[in-house]
Amino acid sequence: MNAIILDSNNPDNIDLCAGVIKSGGLVAFATETVYGLGADALNENAVEKIFDVKGRPGDNPLIVHVASIDDIKPLVRSIPDSFEALSNKYMPGPLTLIMKKNSIIPGNVTAGLGTVAVRLPKHPAALAFIKACGCPVAAPSANPSGFPSPTKAIHVYNDIGGKIPYILDGGDCTFGLESTVLDITGDIPRILRPGFVTYNELKDMLGVVEIARGKEAGVPVSPGVKYRHYSPKTPFYAVTGPPDVTAKYIVEHMDNKTAAVMFDDYAFSNPCVLTFGSSKDYIAQASQLYDTLRRADYMGISKIYAQAPSEDGLGAAVANRMLKAAGDNIIRLD
Ligand code: TXA
Ligand code: MG
User: Fold this and answer.
1) One digit per residue, pLDDT tens: the chain, 334 residues?
2) How far is CA 89 from CA 84, 120, 206, in A?
3) Ligand 1 centre from 223 Cα, in Å?
4) Counting atoms of ligand 1 from 1, which one is nearest the CA of 117?
5) CATH topology assigned to domain 4-211
6) Dist. CA 290–CA 148, nearest whole Å
7) Where are the chain's structural domains?
8) Most buried of 92, 186, 194, 226, CB within 10 angstroms?
9) Residues 111, 47: contact at Cβ < 8 Å?
10) DSSP 334
11) How close is the Cα of 194 to the center of ligand 2, in Å?
12) From the CA of 256, how far away is ligand 1's center (Å)?
């Protein structure tokens, strides 16, 4: 198989891809965050194919995507009080809500958990596609497990194009980082993954919000947090601290086998320096991070350094992905 990239502006292409989902196949599609790898969320065999194509561990649950708020109700056992305000403001949008699951959802979608993650994306092509499918669509990011998420159709093609029939091309993802994941099953809402909807926004709306640490008493709160994530293939080092200090460190440690991912306003002239937005422009950083990590990987060098953003506002989401991509390779100059 070799995936065909289809323009999502053509309604025939939406119908073609929806037909594949209805018959139990997989299609990758654009959302405003990252490209997703979709299957009929009510078809256990179709969902299993997602895990195969991604090489995703079976204990890491998937997000179920819907085309309207009404489509959420049959998926969940109860609607928490906070749902109305959250859905009014952020649905459609880059917010995933964890709620108690209903029995129509197969166990592999939720990795056996009693909860389900639900998202109503904003990208018009994603909405048209899910609507045409006529079923909820389970979709993780459309990358092999552990690697940077795809923000362009060509990323999906390069990563898994040999394993799926179609990629529904909706252009470059405007946000470029995965949705905020918020657990609203308990008394206090908890952010399991930071994203475009920030802690401060949620706190303003809900009064009190917790940020889940990676592990609580040794148990990962969101199964996804315990695995390697977002990492380029080349050994990757994130450098944290004030941007002038991190830039100086990188300048001093560059050699001709090293690439650097730097803020526009701190970059220096060197063919192996790639920029991903200015130090204060978190929106630019979010939209460019994954593509920049991929481009650094293509340079055939043996090490990548990156300047980590500070963690205020949306910077928290960008820093979260970059530090996870680095794993243990974090150089702290704070
Ligand atoms: O923006 C996004 O969220 C993208 C697009 C395609 O919608 N999707 C995405 O999916 O990033 P994925 O599978 O790469 O990340 C889903 C995250 C994982 O960390 C997973 O562990 C967590 O959501 N998750 C899913 N269901 C959960 C549940 N029931 N409880 C806790 N965490 C859950
Ligand atoms: Mg992912």
Assistant:
1) 799 999 999 999 999 999 999 999 999 999 999 999 999 999 999 999 999 999 999 999 999 999 999 999 999 999 999 999 999 999 999 999 999 999 999 999 999 999 999 999 999 999 999 999 999 999 999 999 999 999 999 999 999 999 999 999 999 999 999 999 999 999 999 999 999 999 999 999 999 999 998 655 445 566 666 667 899 999 999 999 999 999 999 999 999 999 999 999 999 999 999 999 999 999 999 999 999 999 999 999 999 999 999 999 999 999 999 999 999 999 999 9
2) 9, 12, 12
3) 9
4) 26
5) DHBP synthase (3.90.870)
6) 6
7) 4-211, 236-332
8) 194
9) no
10) -
11) 13
12) 38
Q: Are 287 and 275 in contact (CB under 8 A)?
A: no
Nearest ligand by distance to the CA of 107:
1
Degrees (nearest 5) of the Cα angle 296, 140, 120? Answer: 115
- From the alpha carbon of 121, which atom of ligand 1 is closest? 7
Tell me how long the chain is.
334
CATH number of 236-332: 3.40.50.11030
